[in-house]
């Protein structure tokens, strides 16, 4: 996870990409609750392998499992010796949410790429991750940076805010192609074996849509 120790209200990176989370534990043995420790996350890393495993098992992930998938909600030992799960509560949500996809394989197949993207979807509801703390709060993919399967060049998929559910792919400043819907994005990545590395999510009402 990308963490940032920053207290400045003028920090542009923090204001746009930073998600402040309060972490604490409540011991299941001695029932003592720790104080809150605030940390700022700049991005969350998600394992492509774990995404495919959940997708292939046809599981509907719980909030706790989603936390584990993103690397949050770990465990900490209390002073009494009891190992307890860390509780995570959102303190400040980011304007732009960044997800980094960790591809363990050197030579990913078209099927793996398709299954991974299908498991991710083009929307992210943070209320599912922080159950009990947030109402529905959905982010949508505004852009996605991909590497070619041989890691020699990159492309960028961008959301077209003028046409709902419409994306295009930018190979360079002078080479831009219309892709279509999110299903078409998955198909293109699978066919050309593009590996999504960075996904930028924004709330649909955000001023960063289309920018």
Number of helices: 6
State the helicity in percent bands: 10-25%
Regarding quaternary structure, how should these chains be classified? single chain
The arrangement of helices and strands along the chain is: EHEEHHEEEEHEHEEEEHE
Task: From the alpha carbons, calculate the radius of gyration and give it in angstroms.
Answer: 19 Å
- Beta percentage is 35-45%
For the report, how would you describe the main beta sheet? 11 strands, mixed
Number of strands: 13
What is the mean predicted local confidence, pLDDT? 76
Structural class: alpha+beta
Global morphology: globular
* Uncertain residue ranges: none
The end-to-end span amounts to: 26 Å
What features would you describe in this structure?
This protein is α+β, with helices and mostly antiparallel strands. It has helices spanning 12-17, 48-56, 63-69, 110-120, 126-129, 182-192; strands at residues 2-4, 19-24, 37-47, 75-77, 83-85, 87-92, 96-102, 123-125, 138-147, 154-159, 167-172, 175-180, 195-203. The strands form two sheets. Strands 1, 2, 3, 6, 7, 8, 9, 10, 11, 12 and 13 form an eleven-stranded mixed beta sheet that branches. It has a two-stranded antiparallel sheet with strand order 4-5. Strand 9 (138-147) and strand 10 form a beta hairpin. The longest helix has 11 residues, at 110-120. The mean pLDDT is 76.
């Amino acid at each position: 996870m990308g963490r940032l120790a920053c207290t400045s209200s003028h920090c542009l990176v923090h204001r746009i990409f930073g998600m402040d989370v309060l972490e604490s534990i409540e011991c299941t043995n001695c029932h003592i609750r720790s104080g809150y420790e605030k940390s700022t996350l700049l991005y969350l890393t998600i394992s492509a392998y774990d995404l495919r495993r959940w997708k292939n098992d046809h599981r509907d992930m719980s909030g706790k499992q989603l936390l584990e998938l993103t690397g949050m909600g770990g465990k900490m030992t209390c002073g009494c010796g009891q190992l307890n799960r860390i509780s995570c509560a959102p303190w400040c949500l980011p304007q732009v949410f960044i997800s980094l996809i960790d591809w363990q394989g050197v030579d990913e197949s078209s099927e793996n790429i398709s299954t991974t993207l299908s498991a991710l979807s083009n929307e992210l509801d943070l209320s599912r991750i922080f159950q009990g703390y947030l109402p529905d709060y959905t982010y949508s993919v505004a852009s996605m940076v991909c590497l070619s399967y041989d890691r020699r060049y990159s492309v960028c998929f961008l959301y077209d805010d003028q046409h709902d559910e419409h994306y295009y792919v930018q190979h360079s400043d002078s080479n831009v192609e219309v892709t279509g819907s999110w299903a078409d994005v998955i198909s293109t990545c699978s066919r050309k074996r593009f590996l999504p590395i960075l996904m930028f999510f924004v709330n649909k009402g955000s001023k960063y849509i289309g920018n």
